[in-house]
Amino acid sequence: MNVIIKLVSVFSLLFLVSCGGKEEEKKEKITIQTKKTTTTETKKTTTSNAIPPSKRVDLVNKGVGPIKTLVLSENIDQNMVKKGQELFKVKCGACHKPHKKFIGPAPTGILERRTPEWIMNMILNPEEMVKEDPLAKELLVEHNGSPMANQSLVEDEARAILEYFRTLKEEN
Question: Above 50 in pLDDT, residue 128?
């Protein structure tokens, strides 16, 4: 009798376990037929959009930031270049390489494409530049959304880096 009670208990337990816990969901397939509409969008392509922002020439835009006017002398200040080169290595070298695109664009030839004011404002004020300057916004997109880090440089340091940029020439 004891064995029968144990067997009935085990079978009852197995029955309860096998029936509980798994509920199959009934999935109803509802098909709604809609008309397919196609829209054709014409995208205007201008020369400025055909050239990537890093290669585009804009010698009018001064950017957004503290630098409103900057006049460069004809002579390059070699002491400032040396200081700028060191600052560039320490502060900018993680994302920029002088002669090739890395995380950010290469500064080689930048003064042939941008105003000195724009460059200085980008160095000193990168957050506001990517929010308000159309070209900086496009550069952000071109460089996969990698924003330029604010290195908290002062104006003299940014100016030294700009002087260093003046010495960078395209490699042949």
Answer: yes
- Phi/psi of residue 100, each to 5°? -150, 155
124: nearest Cα among 162, 171, 81: 162
* 114 SS3 class: strand
> Are the CB atoms for 118 and 61 separated by under 8 Å?
yes
Going by C-alpha positions, the residue among 170, 171, 162 that lies closest to residue 81 is 162
For the record, the structure tokens of 104 come out as: 């950010």
Coil/strand/helix, residue 142: helix
By C-alpha distance, which of 80, 91, 87, 75 is closest to 163? 80
Q: What is the pLDDT of residues 93-117, one digit of tens each?
A: 999 999 998 898 999 999 999 999 9
pTM for the model stands at 0.69
CA–CA separation, 31 and 10 (whole Å): 46
Helices (H), the chain: 2-19, 47-50, 78-87, 116-124, 126-132, 134-142, 155-167
Residue 132's SS3 state is: helix
Output the CA–CA distances (angstroms, integers) from residue 103 to 78, 92, 145, 156, 172, in the order listed.
Answer: 28, 11, 10, 25, 22
